[in-house]
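lol forgot to send this yesterday, sorry. struct tokens for the thing we talked abt
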């Protein structure tokens, strides 16, 4: 019984490590890891950006959103720009100021390629009246 439990715990630990590895982007030698945040906003657009660097590209590897609800439920847009293929997603907010919305984590593997010498912006539209907390974090690298 004890050996079976130890084997099960080892399998769970190995599986957890394998899942964690899928969220870590592989970056080329010489690339610089970068991250940005919108900071906390209340019923306003939450926007994060990688600044433009002359002659280099930004790569967006993912983003994370955390927020609280608004007075009424609704769906808002998440938009991105500065890449050859800009993506748009939807984000749902629950009815009830102060109630936690479902977290959203998006990982791009491979990372999304930015245009040369161009900033990358990712923004979450305002969630509505009564919303007191929302932020977006983005991560990637510059090369």
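and heres what i got for the seq, position by position
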């Amino acid at each position: 019984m004890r050996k079976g439990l130890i084997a099960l715990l080892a399998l769970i630990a190995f599986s957890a490590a394998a899942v964690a590895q899928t969220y870590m982007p592989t970056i080329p030698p010489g690339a610089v890891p970068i991250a940005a945040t919108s900071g906390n906003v209340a019923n306003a657009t939450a926007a994060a950006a990688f600044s433009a660097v002359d002659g280099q590209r930004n790569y967006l590897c993912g983003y994370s959103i955390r927020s609280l609800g608004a007075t009424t439920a609704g769906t808002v847009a998440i938009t991105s720009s500065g890449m050859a293929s800009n993506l748009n997603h939807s984000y749902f907010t629950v009815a009830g100021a102060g109630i936690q919305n479902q977290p959203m984590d998006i990982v791009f593997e491979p990372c999304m390629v930015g245009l040369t010498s161009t900033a990358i912006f990712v923004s979450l539209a305002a969630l509505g009246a009564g919303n007191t907390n929302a932020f977006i974090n983005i991560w990637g690298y510059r090369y």
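Residues 2-22 form the longest helix (21 residues). anyway ping me if u want another try
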